[in-house]
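Weekly structure sync, notes
Attendees: PL (lead), two postdocs, one rotation student
Agenda item 3: pending single-chain targets
PL asked that the sequence for the first pending target be pasted directly into the notes so everyone works from the same version. It is reproduced below exactly as submitted, 228 residues in total.
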Amino acid sequence: MKQQGIQVAPASRTLLVDQVTVAIRNAVVDGTAVPGTRLVEGDLAESLRVSRGPVREALRRLEQEGLVRIVPAGGTFVATLTEEDIREIYGVRAALEGYAARRTDRNVATLQSVLGEMDQAFRSGDMSGLIEADVKFHRVLVGLPGNARLLGAWRALEAQMRLVLSLTRDQVYRDPERLAEQHRGLAEAISSGDADRAEQRVREHIEGRIDERLAYWREVTNRRGAAE
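Predicted structure, written out during the meeting:
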């Protein structure tokens, strides 16, 4: 049976494994391939017009990112996150970003630039642009101290964070104006020079709504289960 649900553009031969990884990752993160979907190497290779080798290597990379689960002699499946997984992801994220907020200096010009992108996306009703600006804001924040290991640890979680966002976007982004205001508050706290305040605001922003997001995650998961 041909692979159902994933439609991706053919990859060029340049940086083939990287491109195949991005294509499959995007299909998982944007919800095209829902949790539990079996990913068949042959079908993916046919869709991408590549051999099975790059697909196999891409799936191994995505397993390391926590986006797929490879079962020996059983196949490869889109990962299904549990509530505990989500708590762990956001707990680690809060620690990393709180540390970054404490260690950065007052030069937050790059954050202000991202806020401009967020406002533009909000005014134009561009939901995808708003999500990208939100993720970019936090990636830039973690990069401000210039600590490559810190940024690397955060990037290791990014795909899983995006997976959570893709399933809870209707709840997370239901009030774009409030979201933009929250991020302006974070930038102001970071630029204040008060390390304790900056860390606290960032941690509260990430940890303060975990239960709300988990409640919506349950609702989405239950709806999908009922539809199957």
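Discussion points:
- The longest strand covers residues 68-71.
- Strands lie at 38-39, 68-71, 75-78.
Action: rotation student to compare against the earlier draft before next sync.
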